[in-house]
User: What shape does this take?
Amino acid sequence: MTELVLGPREAGAVDARLAQAALLDLAMEEAGAAVAAAARNYPDGPVLLLAGGGANGGDALVAARHLHVQGREVTVLAAPPTHELARLNRRRLRAVGVSIRFLTPEAVQRFARGAALLVDGLLGTGFRPPLRPPLATLIEAVNAAGCPVLSIDLPSGLDALSAEAPLPAVQADSTVTLMGWKPALLFGTAAARAGRVTLAPLTVPPGWVHEAALAGRPADAEVGALLPRRQPDAHKGTAGHVWVLGGHPGTTGAPAMTGVGALRAGAGLVSVHSLADIPLVMPELMIRRHRSWASAFSTMESQRPDAVVVGMGLGPQAAEVARRVLSWEVPTVLDADALQPELAGLGHASCLWTPHPGEAARLLNTSTAELTRHPLDAARALQQRLGGVVVFKGGPSVVAHEGGLSVARGGHPGMASAGMGDTLSGVLGALLGQGLLPWAAAVAGVRLHARAGERAAATHGYGLSASDVAQELGGAWRDLRGPS
Ligand SMILES: NC(=O)C1=CN([C@@H]2O[C@H](COP(=O)(O)OP(=O)(O)OC[C@H]3O[C@@H](n4cnc5c(N)ncnc54)[C@H](O)[C@@H]3O)[C@@H](O)[C@H]2O)[C@@H](O)CC1
Assistant: This one.
């Protein structure tokens, strides 16, 4: 027999591979333990675990072992393993005395009867649509099982990167997602499939985190820490002067709403500049009506605000007005009519662009459907095209800046109503005016607005208006920042 002798380089490569395999094994062990812990939130009784052939199935096998060792009755239905760690965890499961049955729709139907919980480990991030037929029948059997379903990483049948839920896909009651949030768990019809989602971070090297999970999702405490804190001797001059440029005959309410949003988000002074008669919805607003934008700019030249919000209801001259504002190089929010493709690349680092999907489609020359299907990609593409910071508005909104992506928490479906974006742009302007960096203003402003929406919805439900939301901004600030 010849002895195999490895040189130092080959031995090093073998060591590195072994270390990688050990880390992956550890990650799967942590994933399975997190799933077993989540299963304990459901009532006592037998647990039916379904394991696909890949690593998602491997997680289910680990969870089964943990539950069994903790004294829970488990039934495991597994597909033939295609992943090395799924194979290893089958052996470990058998070693502790659990038998593994063949995974068929009939077996799912049979063992689901009397189960307190079904754990779905059929498909995770390795799934790429379209679904092949045997899996489609299994997913239908899961949805017909009649007991609560806990999905591992994401409900089987969802494409981790897409906000669309194809049929069939598992309808889960809860999901334990691993390492980070996937777009499918955050947006659109897909998110509705996941039920209540909890995150198990896992101790994996940063490079292993799935590309879909790279977006941050700051908690309220982190957002609250971004909000400015005032000194006791603060006065209106230290809380920022915000200029709102917008309005046009017929669209006069929009800049008024922006002004109110800015006041309610703490701006010291708010001036609304317009060629139209802007309703004085709050007497604290300083309304400046101009004959033309040329004369407006000549009177504005001698002063500079702390922040500008431009575009709401501004009409056909919006691009021209916005271009002039950009030349001032003060922190600027570009909204609504100011979101014109011809302005792409003309902004500066303190610009905050706030497109909704329709405006984003115009800016990127694509369809709204394509953008809402892949909101993270859309936000990234908008930031690359426009520069500065982008708030891609939606439920939820995504903030894109040079440092990455951040997905907002919360909000309420009742916020899908007129004037909501105008209020948000005012909030963003107020935070810029109070000295926040554009990305911090965006992350904090979007959450502040969403929190105010949640508060207003408690009273008004789907009937809430942008004015109701503006009224709750002070309370939302207190919720996030604390009483100071
Ligand atoms: N990446 C990591 O570091 C970790 C990943 N983990 C788990 O690994 C999962 C990803 O594992 P895999 O990459 O093995 O993939 P999955 O286990 O998600 O999917 C692979 C399986 O799905 C089948 N499949 C794929 N496309 C299909 C289609 N169109 N129709 C029918 N069947 C299809 C494949 O034949 C294979 O059996 C994650 O979701 C997570 O659950 C965890 O173990 C923790 C660590």
The CA atoms of residues 228 and 436 lie 7 Å apart. The chain has a mean pLDDT of 93.
